[in-house]
Structure formats: structure tokens, C-alpha cells
Design a protein that fits this description.
Number of helices: 6
Radius of gyration: 14 Å
CATH superfamily: Winged helix-like DNA-binding domain superfamily/Winged helix DNA-binding domain
Shape: globular
Structural class: mainly alpha
CATH architecture: Orthogonal Bundle
Number of strands: 4
CATH topology: Arc Repressor Mutant, subunit A
Largest sheet: 2 strands, parallel
Length: about 130
Amino acid sequence: MVRLHRLKASDVYDIVAQIPEGKVTTYGDIARALGHPGASRAIGRILNRNPKPITTPCHRVIKSDGKLGGYAFGKIMKKELLKKEGLCFNGDSAAEFRNYRISYTKLHYEDLVSFASSRRCASDLT
């Protein structure tokens, strides 16, 4: 597969900004949505440098197995933020993960510009 574009932090932030309170997605879902299916770790590195954690809620991105993954402000803070939004946990894993997960696998990069500029909720994508 030939990539026609580079992975850009702004594209990652645009997707993450659409995740509503009480929902999560995975690093891999974001990577696939941007046409870079093997870039989960790169997504994590980009989110670790998130300059606007309030408007770009990177705490809502977790690992594909439901575990928390990293967070610039620490896993304890990430877990507490998600608990306040209604998620439940078994240890460091989201309980009933599939009920909270929003999958971006159907979103294509070409749709990203219209997606990011629309007022749709990310829950419309499930």
C-alpha cells in the first residue's frame, strides 16, 4: 500500500476532539482512520505532546485491549478523568469496553476535513 499523505498531529487532534464525554477509542482506531494502520505507537507519541488537553481530550484514547495506556499527566489521572465521565474499571482495564468504544475504522482520511469541520458527534460514526 502506498501512502499518499504523512501522519500529522493536527489530523490526530481533529479526530480526538470529536470523542464525546463518556466514550473512548483506541490508538489503533485513530491510526486506521488516518490511513496508517501500523501507527498506533506514533498516535500515542503525538497525543503525549498534546498542547490542548482540554479541547483535545486525549485521555479518551486507550489501548485496543481496554487497558488505559499512557497519559502525559499519569495513568491515575487518566483513570480518574474517565471515571468522572462514567467509565467503570476492572484494575486498569475499562469494564465492558465495547459499550464505551467508538470505532473510527469506517472513517476514511478523505472524509476527515468534512468530519472535523462538522458539528456531528463522534457517536454518529458507530
